[in-house]
Every structure is written in C-alpha cells, then in structure tokens.
Specification:
The complex is a heterodimer of chains A (280) and B (222).
Chain A (H helix, E strand, L loop, with lengths): L1 H15 L3 H6 L10 H7 L1 E6 L8 E2 L5 E2 L1 H13 L2 E6 L5 H6 L5 E2 L7 H4 L2 E17 L19 E5 L4 H8 L4 E5 L2 H9 L5 E5 H9 L6 E3 L5 E10 L3 H16 L2 H10 L14
Parallel strand pairs in A: 1-4, 1-5, 7-8
Antiparallel strand pairs in A: 2-3, 5-11, 6-9, 6-10, 6-11
Helix pairs in contact in A: 4-10
Chain B lengths: L11 H35 L2 H15 L3 H11 L9 H26 L3 H9 L4 H31 L11 H12 L2 H31 L7
Helix pairs in contact in B: 1-2, 1-4, 1-6, 1-7, 1-8, 2-4, 3-4, 4-6, 5-6, 6-8, 7-8
Classes of the chains: A alpha/beta (280), B mainly alpha (222).
C-alpha cells in the first residue's frame, strides 16, 4: 500500500517537475501517520536529510550523510533512546517522503510557511535563516554599503528563480535590473563574472557557494532584511511525535547543543538566534 | 487531486507577454539563420574547397553538440575572455548559429536536388548567376524544402523555452516564476503547454498560407 502511494507520487512529480509544496498538497489525505508508539516499539527514528543543501546536509569522506541536520538528528535519537536511520531526500521530494510514511521526521531547512503548514506539521523552531545582501567590495556599478543602495537603476541583481529575495527586491528595489537564473552555481558565476553586482538571499544558502569562488571580494551586508523560522517537519496530525520533539528541542536549545552544532558547521553564530522558550 | 485553475488564470496576461517574446526570438533567429544557411549552402555548392571545409566544420560542430551547451558557452565562457553578452544576446546568437547550421544542411539538399538541365537552360538563355539564383534556383529550393523549413521553424519556436535558463523572461521562465509563487505546478504547466500548442498551430497555419500564396506549395500544414 505504502509503496503504491509512493510510486504514485514520484510518477506525478516526474511528470510535472513539481515543487515540494505542490506535490504534497495533492497528497495530504492518503498516507497514515506512523505514531510515536511505533517509533518506540521498533526503536527506530527515520530522519530525512537533504544533502544538496550544504552544510545542513553534506556527504562526508566516507560518502555518508553528515552536516548540521545529521548532528541534530543524532542528538534527537540519542535523547529519545532510539536508533537513528538517516534517509537521503531532495528538495522536491522531501515532503512526499513524509507523506508516504518513508520517514518520521524531515530536516533540511524547510522554512515555515503557511502553504507548507497546510500540508505538514512543524515542531518549534530549530534554527532561523536570515535574508541578507551579498555583494562585492569592489567592481560593482555603484558602491553597495546598505540595502537601500540596491534601489538604483544602475544596479544589476541576480537571483535564483523562486527564492525569498525576489519579493523583497520587487518591494524595495524595483528600479534595479534583475536577472533570474536557475541554480546557485550559475548565479554565483554570474556575480563573479560581473553580470551582476549583488544578490538577496538567505545567508545560510550562500556561505558554502561563496567559498567556491575564492578570488571574489565578497561582502555580506550586516543588515538582516528578514528572518525565516525553520522547524522539523512531521506528518500532518502526528502530534504524538511532535509533542515529544518539542520537548527534545527545548532541551537541545537550553543545553547549547544547537548553537554549538551551528557554529561547528557554519563557522559563525546563528545570525538571528532562536530564543529559548519553555512555553509552546 | 484537486486542480484549481481559478488560482492561475490571473497569470495569463503575463504568460502571453512571454509567448510574444518566444515568438520574436524564434522569428529573428530563424530569419538570420536563413541568411547563414543560404550563404553556407551556396558556398557548399559553388565555393572553393577551403571555404567548403570551413562550412562543413561549422555545420558538424553545431549539429553535433546540444544547443543548450552552445548557449552555455556563449553565456558563461566568453566572459572569461572579456566578452559579456546580455542574456538575450547570448540566446539569440546561440539560436541563430545553431539554426544556421541546420538550415545550411537543409538547403544543401535543395541545391543538390536542382535538375542540371534547368541551370543549363538558364545559361543558354543568357541569365547571369544572380538571375539564375533569383528566377530558377530559389523558387525551386523553396518549393522542395518548404516542409523541412517550416518544421525547423516550429522546432525553434518550442526551443525558445530553454532561454529561461539564461534569465530571458519568455513563456517558460514566467511559468517557472508563477510555479514558485503558487505551487500550482500541474495547472501552470498544462496552461503553458496549451499556449505553446496555440503558438505552433498559429505558426503552422501562417506558414501554410504563406507557402500556398507565395510559392504554390501544396504540402499539408498539420
């Protein structure tokens, strides 16, 4: 039964090249949540981790999935006294994996949005992401020292299609020339080659690609344009598991585990810290 | 699965602007490609051997590599040599060079199919080379090649969708943007496919009318 549902989703995803939310929104009612009791009786927690989003998920030298999310998942399993099984997921299929009961929890910087909350349930925030301006210290059309410098017809911006910076630009820098490309490597190459002066994106998505272009005088402006909040996703209605995870995450924030793992993988503290809040 | 077309019809005006850009791209690239193709095929038929070899190298390079890779090269490799093409320039140049290669091949077949007797008759009547091309060769080629040429035009119209990858906001790019906002993938892409179908049907009908009216071609349009 589960297999059939999954094949159904993946075929549909292939046909339409679906985004995660879209795939999931068509599937909300089909699969059954695996309750907490089953996680405890099998002593196994299956965590979906996305290795295409470094350093949230990365492949290590042994070709195993590691990264910030893997550290978090391991600590959750340790606190729950169950065994962890890491399952590789990608951006388009991570929510369908949850829907089809292939995984119990999903990590991978799934920003909390109303659209997604209609489809999956979120725990309390695990971390934040901060929307910032990435630019260059030299070689730009005009000097860019504050976000409002982008509102200039001479400024060229480049963005990955469908990312959070685009609505911000439309609202705050509509004069700038905007080019939309398909993926981060193309976008960074365009910045490096001088096709564009700046991009607006979450800091966490740009720290690793920046390192792949070491010759460029990268500059990240200090201003945080917006913060997004990221929780762990569970199947819609799986409150038994979600309630436990909320307590586990509170403990992990309180003990400093989350902050330590963040600094280990990102090299800097979380730009917008998650307050430790006992009420949830 | 519930499809909600009501949530995506608002994108139609935006998509139609994109469709106009797609049509324009295909038209300009095809027109310029035809000039390259006619020149290339003439050199192939009448030119000296070194020039023929150059044309052959050009054709085999462009017909044996994917168009996407060619444009990628124009867009991302040329800046390393100090040539920074705008997205639309890179796409247009890439599509034109690619079309030129295919159209050279198509028109070469047209030159080869020319009956020798007709050219000899033209020479006997004292036609100059240009007059021969204008009154004997060109009408013959257009009529013989009409179906292949219109096929190429349709293929190019649909091929404009890859301009999205290079930041040209044509129809597919606008569909991808709308998809990222609305998550209504199936609705958006069926609507986009519908617009492409209308584009190609309109183009086929126009080409059919043009062929009938100007060249008395009786090939089927669909």
């Amino acid at each position: 039964m589960t297999d059939n549902i999954y094949q159904h989703i993946s075929r549909r995803s292939l046909v339409a090249g679906l985004a995660a939310g879209a795939a999931a929104s068509t599937m909300g009612m089909d699969a059954l949540a695996k309750p907490l009791a089953e996680v405890l009786s099998t002593k196994k927690l299956r965590a979906g981790i996305n290795p295409t989003l470094p350093p949230f998920g990365v492949f290590n030298a042994q070709n195993q999935i590691d990264g910030f999310d893997a550290d978090i998942a391991r600590e959750i399993a340790r606190l729950m006294k169950v065994e962890l099984e890491i399952v590789q997921v990608g951006s388009p299929d991570r929510i369908p994996f949850l829907q089809a009961d292939r995984i119990d929890i999903v990590l991978g910087a799934i920003t909390r949005t109303v659209e997604r909350a209609l489809v999956i349930d979120y725990t309390v925030p695990l971390h934040t992401q901060s929307v910032v301006v990435l630019t260059k210290g030299s070689g730009t059309a005009v000097p860019i020292n504050k976000p409002s410098d982008l509102a200039n017809a001479q400024v060229k911006l480049v963005q990955v299609r469908g990312t959070v910076g685009i609505p911000w630009i439309q609202a705050n820098a509509p004069q700038a020339q905007l080019t939309l490309l398909d993926n981060y490597p193309d976008t960074f190459r365009a910045l490096q080659q001088g096709r564009a002066d700046a991009m607006v994106d979450v800091l966490e998505s740009v720290v690793v690609p920046m390192k792949n272009f070491p010759g460029v005088p990268w500059k990240v402006l200090d201003d945080v344009l917006a913060s997004t909040w990221v929780g762990i996703g569970v199947q819609k209605g799986n409150t038994t598991l979600k309630d436990v995870l909320n307590v586990v995450l509170f403990e992990m924030h309180k003990s400093g585990f989350v902050a330590t793992a963040w600094e280990k993988w990102f090299g800097v503290p979380m730009k917008t810290p998650v307050p430790v809040n006992p009420m949830f | 699965m519930q499809l909600q077309y009501g949530q995506v019809v608002g994108y139609i005006p935006d998509f139609l602007t994109g469709a106009a850009i797609a049509l324009g791209l295909a038209f300009v690239a095809f027109a310029l490609g035809m000039i390259i193709g006619l020149t290339g095929a003439s050199i192939n038929a009448y030119g000296p051997r070194p020039a023929r070899l150059v044309i052959r190298a050009y054709v085999s390079f462009f017909t044996n590599t994917p168009q996407l890779v060619q444009i990628f090269f124009l867009f991302f490799a040329l800046p390393e040599f100090g040539i920074l093409l705008a997205p639309i320039q890179a796409v247009l140049i890439g599509m034109t060079l690619n079309a030129g290669a295919y159209l050279t091949e198509i028109q070469r077949a047209g030159f080869q199919s020319l009956p020798k007797a007709e050219i000899e008759a033209a020479e006997t009547l004292g036609f100059t080379r240009l007059q021969t091309i204008r009154h004997v060769i060109a009408p013959h080629i257009v009529k013989a090649l009409y179906p292949s040429l219109s096929n190429q035009y349709i293929i190019m119209t649909l091929g404009t969708s890859m301009a999205a990858i290079f930041g040209v906001e044509e129809l597919t790019a606008r569909a991808l943007n709308a998809n990222a906002i609305s998550f209504r993938s199936i609705e958006i892409f069926t609507m986009t496919a519908g617009i492409y179908i209308v584009l190609t049907i309109v183009a086929s009908a126009l080409l059919y009318g043009l062929g009938r009216g100007l060249f008395r071609v009786t090939a089927r349009a669909f």
